[in-house]
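New here. Your pick:
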Amino acid sequence: MNLLVFIMLATLSVAHAAPLLICAFNGYIFGQAKMDKPDAVDILVEMVQRYDIFMIQEIRDSAQTALPELVDKVNEVSSVRYDFVVSERTGRTSSKEQYGYIYKTNKVKVLSEYQYKDDQNDIFEREPFSVQFERIDGQGNQKLFSYISIHAKPDDAVAEIDALDDVYDDVAAKYGEDALIGGDFNADCNYVCKTCWQQIDMWNDPRFTWLIGSDVDTTVSSTDCAYDRLVVAGDSMTRNSGSGSVFRFDLAYGLSYEETKAVSDHYPVEFNLYLPLEIDSNRNDFEQRQNLCLSLSLAIGKSMNRWVFVTLLATFSEAHAYPLLIGAFNVQIFGQSKMNKPDVVNILIKMVLRYDILMIQEIRDSTQTALPELVDKVNQLSWIRYNFVVSKRSGRTSSKEQYGYIYRSSRIRVINEYQYPDTDNDVFEREPYSVQFERIDGQGYQTKFNYIAIHTKPDDAVAEIDALDDVYDDVAAKYGEDALIGGDFNADCNYVCKTCWQQIDMWTDPRFTWLIGSDVDTTVSSTDCAYDRLVVAGFSMTYYSSLGSVFRFDLAYGLNSYETKAVSDHYPVEFYLY
């Protein structure tokens, strides 16, 4: 291999890595009194697991046991280990507070901690605390950033926010310019007047980008105040940060006002930190990137691995747009019987809210009311409207099924639907169903794509999977080559033997990239079978798709085996589309 090509390949990594989801949350007098409320703790445990880094303020706990106890409870139910770091206790009165960071240890590690020295001017009631994180999961190029936390004293909010640029300068001199400043700034309503913003250096300094503006409400009560903020600085940090938003945990978890206030009087503010590789700005044209990779492919030879090719392309993107999280889920006999189980419905609602598109298989409901009812329940709790589209009922017996897609209507819309006509050969028990989506949120790179759903008959799995390339060709001829094929393929264990894969055209055809391989377990039971799969095709679709993974909703939501199986005997499979 040419030495130059080898060096280029060796230094490249996948640029469309999954982002870090980071938040700031005022825990409202978080201490032992709150930890003695099991319902509030359950919500906090669930919230922590949503994030890669969860920064909590207003820790008031002289014993300093509440935060370690919370992290222990998270680790009891999480498949991913969390750790924490906490500041000194600060404050001018006996009511002192701490800042705490809870983080996924498989994603990031702490390099440095720093409590800002405010001895000279004593501007801050609670001196900002900074933690330098390093990303350790081998994804992305921006590995280091600082996270500066602040909980401003309400009556001194203008002065404290104004002084945050000095805090940033101090931290940047020690640990580098890429930084996030987050927390309860008390930056609105009675504490920061509209004309006061002109006095605040950080508001007017072009080095700082405010991810949370003044037009959002971060409070639980009837007030409409943007107290909580996220601000980024540093060229790389700014470029790789998604827009900020408020996480309405009351809607996500179906809480009453009283249940919500028992957790906090603030909502978390959050954003995605994307970690693409930096490239020469003269090479940001897609065709130039494609040609460069094709040239490298020719330099290496025709045997170039498909994933190496995709990796090369990914390194020359600026994929920090907000991605779509897309799932495929066999809900196991989904119908009115399941909708009559409130605990099951609550889990399904949480799962739908996780995704931008969730494709459901095995809808067995002759009344065709279960899916609309589920979407209605989701919309009752979500401030983002969801819509759905559903296939015809199909199947050779009276036990017919449908495929359904639930999607966020603020981000995407349906352009076309198509049920594959299998009249000639009758290969499929349940004919694949395809929906063409268009992205309408103005973000991302893959603006149109087809999503083909399949639930194979177990005993005919090899033949049905083998015929999926014909389904793809039919859909591609009508709506374009960029497509996702997802669902319960029954593609493992007793239904597809190891030697059978060579008979399956879609497995050996280089046009298709399998995001879920044969080495994962997508089943809830004690079996270890990769039944559920995600496959992408089309140059652009392949380029902008992350690797797939399994969502262990039992671990995420703290369910026992019985509660999990009541929802389904499968886990969803998912991936990010940039």
Observations:
- The mean pLDDT is 86.
- The longest helix spans residues 286-300.
- The two ends are 32 Å apart (CA to CA).
